Amino acid sequence: MAIVSPRMHLSKWLVLMISIISMISNGRARARIPVSNEVTGFEKPKGTVKTIESHESGEVIDCVDINKQPAFDHPLRKNHTIQTNPSSNRKANEAGHVRGAVSQVWWKYGKCPKGTVPIRRVQNGTTRHVKRWTSRLKRLNLSENESDDDGGEHRYAVGTMSGGKYLGAQAYLNLWKPEVVDDEFSLAQIWVIAGPREELNTVEAGWMGDGYKTGCYNTECRGFVQKSDQFALGAALEEFSTYSGSQYELLIALVKNPYTGSWWLQIEDMSIGYWENDVFTHLNGYADRIEFGGEVSRKQKGPIPTSTQMGSGHLPSEGFAKAAYFRSIKFFDDGLNIRDPENLIKVVDKAECYDVKREYDVTYEAHFYYGGPGLSAQCASY
């Protein structure tokens, strides 16, 4: 059987994205980051103190007064006192043959001053809206005659744990540059989840290879307050892994501050910002589920799989430097103690297309390989 591949979009850059899902608004606000070679035709946000243009990635980064960032346009944030950074739970990168990738392309062109936060400027003509979305947990219950809220199709290869009272999760995410069909996306991330299916709350963080041109930008999504003056959410990362070559990764954590109730995003040794407690109906307490892994979304459903890759585009059976991985997977229990997962369960839609292979060793601790090519000789139909 001949395999015909649709037109592909090969992501030049990786972007870091965050998401917040709350059934208060019955939807999801996820970053959709267009990559352009133009640096004109943008709208400067209010409170901009300095502007940095990255001609290499086509991005414009505005250094915005921390007290004038988009989060404070929301009525709930009037007279808000910005929280202090939590103590770090970061671990050193002990795997010497992989490299940390906390390097964004725009850093070559300048830095934001203290008292500001870097925000990737929205390009003129980009649609800003919250894309309706059905949670993965709810989506798995849909019958063949039902449709997702977004009308599309999502495939997953994840490790999931449940049944506890969790205050957070962290892992090293191996960075790759997957091939993505136009108007689709491929991501790797951590999900922290609470609530029943019909009232699901989640916060999510990870990286994305993205052909989308729509969506809500990280700092414009309801509830997130940025603190870091170094890291621009949604901006391009410079380094990524290559097949049988150099491997790059990021340590990402989502951790609840038990005193304020806020959920903090931390990257390596940087506290990026937090989601305020008052935007949630269930994550204002403990999380009851945590997931780690990959997701691919296609615009329309059909019997022929998409060619969008997950992770490296290779199945987990190929192993290190060939398949993508999550390593040193940890969770925070209800006492904020950091622990290894004991009941991480593999969940995949179709292993021939995208799969998970869990392993454990002293260097990488709890880890798994994941991903796959999508449409291929072994993945010819759903």
Description of the molecule:
With 382 residues, the protein is mainly β. Helices cover 1% and strands 38% of the residues. It has one helix and 23 strands. It has one helix spanning 136-139; strands spanning 8-10, 14-22, 27-30, 48-54, 59-65, 99-100, 116-120, 153-166, 168-174, 179-181, 185-194, 201-210, 224-226, 236-237, 248-256, 263-267, 270-275, 287-298, 324-332, 338-339, 345-348, 355-361, 365-371. The longest helix is centred in the middle third of the chain and has 4 residues, at 136-139.
Would you spell out the secondary-structure blueprint of this structure?
Elements: E1 8-10, E2 14-22, E3 27-30, E4 48-54, E5 59-65, E6 99-100, E7 116-120, H1 136-139, E8 153-166, E9 168-174, E10 179-181, E11 185-194, E12 201-210, E13 224-226, E14 236-237, E15 248-256, E16 263-267, E17 270-275, E18 287-298, E19 324-332, E20 338-339, E21 345-348, E22 355-361, E23 365-371
Parallel strand pairs: 6-15
Antiparallel strand pairs: 1-10, 2-3, 2-12, 2-14, 4-5, 5-7, 8-18, 8-21, 9-15, 9-19, 11-12, 11-18, 13-17, 15-16, 16-17, 19-20, 19-23, 22-23
Q: Quote the average pLDDT.
A: 80
Class inferred from helices and paired strands: mainly beta
Give the termini separation: 15 Å
Beta-strand content estimate: 35-45%
Helix content: under 10%
Overall radius of gyration: 19 Å
What characterizes the major β-sheet? 10 strands, mixed
The helix/strand series, from N terminus to C terminus, equals: EEEEEEEHEEEEEEEEEEEEEEEE
Spatial shape = globular
According to DSSP, the number of beta strands is 23
Query: Would you identify the regions where 5 or more consecutive residues have pLDDT less than 50?
Result: 1-7, 21-41, 125-135, 138-148, 211-217
Count of separate DSSP helical elements: 1
